[in-house]
Amino acid sequence: MQTVLKGTVKTVVIERGRPVVIIGERINPTGRKKLGEALLNEDMDYVRREAIQQVEDGAEVIDVNVGVAGGDEEKLLPMAVRAVSEVVDCPLCIDSTHPTALPAALKICPGRPLINSVNGEEAALKRVLPLVKEFDTAVIGLTMDDEGIPTTSEKRFAIAEKILNRAAQVGIKVEDVIIDCLALTVGADPNAAKVTLETIQRVSTELGVNVTLGASNVSFGLPDRDTINQIFVAMAIQAGMTCAIVHPAKARRGILIADMLLGRDEYCANYIRYHRQQEKKAAAACAS
Ligand code: THG
Fold first, then answer.
1. Largest CB tally within 10 Å, which of 134, 166, 179, 212?
2. For the chain, give me the number of helices (H) and strands (E)?
3. Hey, how many other C-beta atoms are within 10 angstroms of the C-beta on 82?
4. For residue 142, which atom of ligand 1 is closest to its CA?
């Protein structure tokens, strides 16, 4: 089950058994005042720098979310997508549910992006799936609907099935739907992470599709978020997650180690290369 995404130059293949693909989450103004201000000022240099940095830190796909209070998303989304695609050659993940901003961004986005996202809600399915077909993209399907996010893996699984069925009806291939089993903060519900992991396991084994998470959500409101996120990501990978929307600089090490421990890194080459790079960086920082 291969999901193939394309940037201006690079092609990214998401598939179980291959190294987990990092989708850089940083172009998102939620909780980031400076980025929000930059977007309101249409300062695309800030967005460009953020994209370049994430690729340097190991992102293979860049998520672009410009949802900021008072911002004109229909104008900002295509602007940001263009700016990012001018400075990085990897595929983009267009993170918007705005009915007109999304098609406007798709029109100018090079390659084969990932749409983030559709969900099990009737209105969302009717609005987004035709765009996936028209622009020949892949799409993330969130396991939630008009009743919100189910608290059981059975219900989330049923929504995943529904999204795949509806996608098939409009001629979207099953490999072009990546299911998001939804990470919620364990700070609000002790079973939150467990339900997510159980859903990943079922979706991955019974439906065979690629699975993703906005993994950083799991630690909202808790101390030492980075460690929680790293351990959760490792567990999600074991359960079947094949790509992760994360902070690349913070998540890469744990992901490389999880891949290595699951036999997806021959001779530990990726891990050792990464380790050497980090040592070089540290030495350079000391010398300067
Ligand atoms: N699923 C899908 N897409 C998503 C999410 C998801 N997109 C948005 C979000 N959830 C994933 N992206 C983020 C981005 C940032 C943070 C969490 C998830 C985050 N930000 C810090 C905060 O708010 O405290 C601040 C950032 C910083 O300055 O470090 O945690 O679930 N498909």
1. 212
2. 10, 10
3. 15
4. 32
Does residue 22 surpass a pLDDT of 90? Answer: yes
Q: Which two tokens stand for residue 220?
A: 């909202």
Element (H, E) at 259: helix 248-261
- Locate the ligand 1 atom nearest the alpha carbon of residue 32 and give its number: 28
Reduce the DSSP state of residue 113 to 3 states and report it.
coil
Tokens of 104: 């406007």
Cα diameter, the chain:
60
Strand, coil or helix: 74: helix
pLDDT score at 85? 98
Number of residues that this document lists for the chain: 288
Contacts of 198 (CB under 8 A, 6+ apart): 153, 239
How close is the Cα of 206 to the center of ligand 1, in Å? 28
Report the nearest-CA residue for atom 14 of ligand 1: 25
Give the pLDDT confidence of 37-77 residue by residue, as tens digits: 999 999 999 999 999 999 999 999 999 999 999 999 999 99
Contacts of 102 (CB under 8 A, 6+ apart): 77, 94, 96, 115, 128, 131
Minimal CA–CA distance to 96: which of 110, 70, 76, 126?
Answer: 76
Q: Name the band, by pLDDT with cuts 50, 70 and 90, for residue 188.
A: very high
pLDDT of residue 288: 80
Share of the chain above pLDDT 70, in %: 100
